Amino acid sequence: MRPARCASLKFYGFFVACVFSLAASVHAQSPAVPSPEAKAADLPLLFDARERIAKPDLSGLARLRFLTTVDFPPFNFIDQSGRLSGFNVDLVREICRDLEIEDKCQIQAVAYADLVPALEKDQGEAIIAGIGITPELRQRFSLSRVYMALPARFAGNRRVVGADTTPAAFAHKPVGVVAGTTHEAMARAFFPGMEIKPFPARPAMLEALKKGDVAGVFSDGVQLSFWTAGTEAGGCCLLMDGAYFSQRFLGEGLAILNRKADPALTQALNHALLNLSRSGRLNEIYTRYFPTGIY
Question: How confident is the model at residue 290 (pLDDT cuts 50, 70, 90)?
């Protein structure tokens, strides 16, 4: 999640204004090829099995425009064919299908800084773009239920940790973090006895991990899942056991924003998210874009 602007997930930065109909086909682009041993853990269920959320009457809804960006892969990005793609884009399509309003749905990509102003100016009805949930946003907008929590993870150097894939493998060995980040603060709070070694930037941290100068690193689970499975890592490293969550350090997770003046839309979004979670369709989208898993 972008903690005001989740730069940890901003793999490339450019902004393009464009509008795409959800009726157009979306071609998913997998950012990494999973290793043969990789198996994605299922998306954690975020709804109580006994919960019921009634579907409101949306007959008076003229259109439903979702606002997003193009710089937040694999959640929203422009694919090789020039189409807006990603986890959030496919999720919007499934939400509209579940609510039976596909002909009224659109998704519009704008600059990140323009998301909230556009929603306030009625240039869209909802935002789905990885905005960090803050008390100030909760006062100004309605938020859907969280549809994905983003964890922190350890990655370890295979040669150094051997067969032990638990944090115990890091005993008396340095673990890298990026200095001044929430992940450094979280590592120090969660693992006070661990030998933490700060690095000035992510590339330096990952290079040290690859060389074995540190036994492991503690960082964003999404980034590490793609890096360990990708060509840059060259098979040097693996995700260790455990996904770590903290609202204090990492926020609540990903949710959809809409105006407080439209509580029926919030209820409709939650109704659809509940159905998608229970039916397994939300998990299908997750495994499509996170083939090695982030949990």
Answer: very high
CA separation, residue 130 to residues 5, 14, 134, 277 (Å): 8, 16, 12, 19
Backbone CA torsion sign across 288, 290, 293, 295: negative
CA 146 to chain centroid, in Å, comes to 11
Domain segments of the chain as ranges: 7-149+252-289, 152-249
pLDDT in tens, 56-88: 999 999 999 999 999 999 999 999 999 999 999
Q: What string of H, E and C letters represents the secondary structure of the chain? A: CECCCCHHHCCCCCCCCEEEECCCCCCCCCCCCCCCCCCCCCCCCCCCCCCCCCCCCCCCCCCEEEEECCEECCCEEECCCCCEECHHHHHHHHHHHHCCCHHHEEEEECCHHHHHHHHHCCCCCEECCCECCCHHHHHHEEECCCCECCCEEEEEEHHHHCCCCCHHHHCCCEEEEECCCHHHHHHHHHCCCCEEEEECCHHHHHHHHHHCCCCEEEEEHHHHHHHHHCCCCCCCEEECCCCECCHHHHCCCECCEEECCCHHHHHHHHHHHHHHHHHCHHHHHHHHHCCCCCC
- The CATH homologous superfamily for domain 152-249 is Periplasmic binding protein-like II (3.40.190.10)
**Contact (CB, 8 A) for 216 and 154:** yes
Q: Do 7-149+252-289 and 152-249 share a fold?
A: yes
Q: Which of 43, 33, 15 is nearest to 221 (CA)?
A: 43
Superfamily, domain 7-149+252-289: Periplasmic binding protein-like II (3.40.190.10)
Average pLDDT, the chain: 87
